[in-house]
UniProtKB/TrEMBL annotation:
Pfam families: DAO (PF01266)
Domain FAD dependent oxidoreductase residues, every copy: 25-368
Domain of life: Bacteria
Protein name stated in the entry: FAD-dependent oxidoreductase
Organism field: Trebonia kvetii
UniProt-listed InterPro entries: FAD-dep_OxRdtase, FAD/NAD-bd_sf
Cellular-component GO terms for this entry: cytoplasm
Length: 438
């Protein structure tokens, strides 16, 4: 279980499982942000709709209860001004719903910092800051007025990001959906999705519309093994830092933060004064494997601890309190998608490739509009209907991802050791092979 759930005293009391067959207007598979936002907006749009969400474990068991808590405007999709605006609006929409529904998710919109700590990272970051909309370059002195990062050479800042407590967000969202009339069944694994029906060991749910909202778990569903790669990501969180350490580091606000390495890390300052830092660890296990309990190898904990101490030497003595891992869905072209087919009544969203906290809200609103036919401008955004090609079969998939991350790590090590002022050829090759458009 993640620290985020621990901090809430564990997941809430189990909700009932499905018992017997049922029918409804919309059946949703998966109670993470995507499924719950879709259910929430459908119910708010038309309170007469009968909406059922089916969840194999508990609401927020997946990435939605384990992530780094970046409510950011980033989306993996080629630049489009309308999509960018929709993402920016979605950050504010999540905050607005939290306020309206009384969801206490430690949400603070202080922006996001990306920090270069090697010459090669600096070269990439300066090039990024010139072209990236909404990002502004910060020289080290200005960065230090916010956060003092060891060896920082430059940073980029955007105001379009909030820090959240992920599990508090998903738990509050589940309650808000239920208040709006949504029925949520837990401990109910879906074993098959067909036209107008969802099968589980406890019964079948027949529905006019069915939505698959299982992101990183999608590969476990029949026929979906090569749809999205279940990518593992791991996080550690420290014990609360003493005031003396915080005064050395600064970071008085709640900016989210990352470095600019190829295998980058992501950080947040938690509401109770800890640092959470995440990264890819062991990114992919053979044949879509993942540890259902989110166990994190010692080597990953050591690597993340090392990164934290390099960025913040003042925190070197602060113990690590917890480590956990989760899975997120990565499409072959790293581009997220959302779709609903009126003819078959089937919809889906995901493949956010590590940027799902905000994107799931946009997906939920988009799906609700498409399902109810209520026509909104969101339906015309370029990611709607985007389906990338499938991943390669094993063992090519495993070999490819291992090679890609080995290349990124090697590139990061070489750039640091040699003080290179540019990316290595190997990292550019890895970008090419991975299909990543960075
Ligand atoms: C460690 C980590 C850090 C991350 N950090 C960030 C971040 O800081 N910012 C960001 O934007 N994104 C981040 N992400 C990604 C983001 O968390 C996800 O993209 C997002 O939560 C996906 O939400 P979802 O509802 O689509 O999927 P999930 O939250 O994974 O929910 C899917 C649900 O479906 C259920 N399910 C699966 N199979 C079945 C079945 N057969 N039957 C019934 N139910 C089923 C699962 O139990 C799960 O509850 C991170 C992800 C991880 C793992």
């Amino acid at each position: 279980m993640s620290f985020w759930w621990d901090a809430l005293g564990g997941p809430p009391a189990a909700r009932p499982s499905l018992s017997g067959d049922r029918s409804c207007d919309v059946a949703i598979v998966g109670a993470g942000y995507t499924g719950l936002w879709t259910a929430y907006y459908l119910a708010r749009h038309d309170p007469s709709l009968r909406i059922i969400v089916l969840e194999s474990r508990y609401a927020g068991y997946g990435a939605s209860g384990r992530n780094g808590g970046w409510l950011s405007a980033e989306i993996d999709f080629p630049h489009d001004a309308r999509l960018r605006q929709a993402m920016t609006d979605s950050v504010d929409e999540v905050l607005k719903v939290c306020a309206a529904e009384g969801i206490e998710a430690d949400a603070v919109k202080s922006g996001c910092l990306r920090v270069a700590v090697t010459p090669a990272q600096e070269t990439r970051l300066r090039a990024f800051a010139v072209v990236a909309a909404d990002w502004r370059l910060l020289e080290p002195a200005e960065l230090a007025t916010r956060v003092r990062v060891a060896g920082a050479r430059a940073a980029a800042f955007t105001p379009q990001c909030a820090r959240v407590q992920p599990a508090a967000l998903v738990a509050g969202l589940a309650r808000a959906a239920e208040r709006a009339g949504v029925l949520l069944f837990e401990q109910t694994p879906v074993t098959g999705i067909s036209r107008g029906a969802v099968s589980t060991p406890h019964g079948t749910v027949r529905a006019e519309a069915v939505v698959r909202a299982t992101e990183g778990f999608t590969a476990t569903l029949p026929g979906q093994r090569r749809r999205w790669l279940p990518m593992n990501s791991s996080v550690i969180v420290t014990e609360p830092l003493p005031a003396s350490v915080w005064s050395e580091i600064g970071w008085a606000d709640a900016e989210t933060m990352s470095d600019f390495a190829h295998a980058y890390c992501y950080l947040q300052r938690t509401a109770d004064g800890r640092i959470a830092i995440g990264g890819r660890g062991n990114p992919y296990r053979y044949s879509n494997g993942f540890d259902p309990n989110g166990h994190t190898p010692d080597s990953t904990v050591a690597a993340l601890t090392g990164m934290l101490r390099r960025l913040f030497p003042a925190a070197a003595e602060v113990p690590v309190a917890r480590a956990w891992s989760g899975v997120l869905g990565v499409p072959r072209d790293w581009r997220a998608g959302v779709a609903f087919d009126q003819a078959t009544g089937f919809g889906w969203a995901g493949g956010y490739a590590g940027h799902g906290v905000t994107t799931a809200n946009l997906a939920g609103r988009t799906l609700a509009g498409l399902i109810t036919g209520s026509g909104s401008e969101l339906a015309d955004l370029p990611w709607v209907g985007h389906v990338g090609r499938r991943w390669e079969p094993e063992p090519l998939r495993w070999l490819g991802v291992q090679a890609m991350y080995a290349a990124y790590r090697h590139a990061d090590r070489t750039e640091t050791a040699r003080g290179l002022g540019h990316s290595t050829r190997l990292s550019r090759l890895a970008d090419l092979v991975s299909g990543r458009d960075r």
